Amino acid sequence: MEYVERIPSSAEPPIEVSYPSVDEELVGFDDHARNIIKKLRGRGSDLDVISIVGMAGIGKTALARKIDSDVSIIGHFDVRAWCSVGQTYNVRKLFLEILKQITGDRFVNVDDPDDMVRKNLFGKRYLIVLDDICERESWDVLTRCFPSVETGSRIMVTTRNVELTRYMKKRSEPYILPCLRDEESWELLQQKVFQGESCPLELRSVGPLVAKKCNGLPFLIIIIAGILSRKKREASLWLEVAYDIGSYTLEEGSMKMIQSSYDLLPDYLKPYLLYMGLFPKGYEIPVSDLLKWWIAEEFVPYNFYKRYDLEERSESHLNDLVSRNLVVFSKTRGNGEMKCCVVPDQVREFCLTKTKEEKFMQHVGKRLCMYIADTMTSDFKERKSFGISQASLEFIAHPKFSISKKKNLFPLLNNFRLIRVLHLLDFYLDDSWAAAFQSLTHLRYLAIFVKAFHFKWVSHLVHLQTLGVRSSYIMMSPAIWKLEKLRHVDINEFPIRWADGERVKFEEPTDVVLHNMKTLGTCSMSVADMTPKFWNKFPNLEQLRLHIDELGDVPYYSDSRLMTLEMFPSRLRNLSLSETFLTDEIVSSIAKLQQLETLKLSEIYFTGKKDWDLSDKTFERLKFLKLHRVFMTHWYCSDESFPELEYLVIKSCSKLEEIPLSFADVPTLRLIKVTDCSKSVCDSALSIKQYMEDLCNELFQVHILKSD
Name one GO molecular function term (predicted). Predict the structure, then answer.
């Protein structure tokens, strides 16, 4: 019998899910950001390099992220890409990452990514951010594919190496980032500790002393803020922290404070942080995937009566780590939710050391969490020296393991039959993958990029919780009912029909219901297939991506047939519809979903008309609405149609004439984002903004962008 040693978990606190903002003001950075943005948007048409140089922990990366996400930068450049380089890097991986960002294709995998990058950038005004460049060689190799044509393109670099900036320089002088002044350090410390509250009188003398001891380094300040925010607000305790900082060199002080912050973590939270330290330096970790990996690794205690709350609990723990400033959110989704997070370099180094000390990666029964991506083999060697993971080793495979080298991979999988997480979306597999995976019966998470996929090939994975597939040929099978622990199915598109082409017979087996299923997509089905017997198989479904096919038949279905759409699970919170006709009955059914918060419509037509009239409909809890290529001319809404809407995103709706002015009466609205629409649509968005400003709503924003 396998024995897997685990770090014990203490009782966990109640769930309190909140999103720390990635838009928080960086104290003392506003002037720096304005100066660099001016350089980036300068009139010169030649390719220019803007270098941000400074010591570790001074905030180079944070400043670069602030600049890269600025609305004026987003609107100025045709394409943008960000990649973290560091001392150990994989050129192919970096080029692939850039290619994914400039093409929008998450799963691009080509033989010559550098050449593809060059071709996709040629003739465009681009901004490439190279974070943490350390040496000339990496600069020379990476910049060989960046065209120098006169389009006003820019490369923004962060580095500690002053000499290197002179080598990279074209026209602009390096931007030397100074340390924060004492008063700025104290302002940042107060901001992080008191979260908008005023500083207590008894701390107003000792507080500036603590801030001064940080020597103007933002990273050290926010780590100490995470410690102080969990201590009693007593001057003596703050003085102890100030003394600890002053007893070490800057580098030693940073590690000492990270250790103190780690010691303050509850026991149950420590594995979460150590797990995140195993990712490559600067790697943007997808939040939605991270939560699923934690659940698969059983960091989140399983409670039968609260089994539907696993994602919420994981999210709460991630937010806890962020609030302690040990993890940083780096990207948000269109609806304001967090998309990616990053472990600061110093925290990552601490985690790697602590991982070895606490034997977090101890080899027990050859259990391994595998996340295979295009990263240097040396990263794996670095981790392997600690021993194979008992809990969560991130295995990094060099891209030489391509189709021609798959023989190197499959025997390796055979040696680790106890793995629970296997992520291979950047790694194309041919049909032999199914046989190679037969022994991996402990898998909880599987994400693969394959030529063909049949549900029966994974029917033996009875513990599977998450299934992600990218494939051009997908076949359904009754075997899906064997996977009763499935929580998330994310497939590019699959038909709700068996392999023989017949409709799915949900009457058999009648006793099987996938109670745990929360995410399902993308289903391709006709209205005729959308019956109560189908939806009742997934009573707890919260997210659904749906493509209603047989579009030409939809207008001819009777109202009674269309009303079966009301059988969407009542818990549905997120719905995406694509490539279909919408009837008034379908829209009414969607509006009746009382818990729906996110609605995304793409490639949508309307039956018999070019107008979308929602005047008599109310989407009570909808917070995010995205319209992409929705073919309507006029759009009518009342001020009660979207009473709680926060984000409205409109992209490539070429026929739309204007956004209804009634959105100006939605008090919760925070953002309207318009991309590639007519001037009249942009003008209507600006009119809504003016109306909001007249009502003193200063938080409301309008973003008008070029086509991606």
Answer: ADP binding
